[in-house]
Design a protein that fits this description.
The protein has two helices and four strands. With 89 residues, the chain is an alpha+beta fold.
């Protein structure tokens, strides 16, 4: 993944984790992260003709899953910790 695309992805993950926690009071899970990333790319294609990040997606049972993005399971149920200061993901 090129550095610009990686930076866009890291910023999107940080944004989604923060907003998800603000709205729900819960950490972002992998399933929601994958849905948010897909929705962002699909909406960008509809509005501009180009994806925001340009990930490829697989159609899975609970929604689209980005190919090549691995979020390791840190603890059940696959929570992504919300850090006070996010430097690198």
């Amino acid at each position: 993944m090129d550095p610009l695309r990686r930076e866009k992805l890291e910023n999107a993950i940080a944004y989604f984790a923060k907003r998800h926690y603000e709205k729900t009071g819960r950490p972002l899970t992998k399933i929601y992260l994958y849905k948010y990333l897909a929705f962002m790319d699909f909406l960008s294609v509809r509005e501009t003709g180009r994806p925001a990040i340009g990930l490829r997606y697989l159609a899975m049972k609970y929604g689209p899953v980005p190919v090549g993005i691995i979020v390791h399971t840190l603890e059940p149920p696959c929570l992504i910790p919300l850090l006070p200061v996010l430097v690198h993901i």
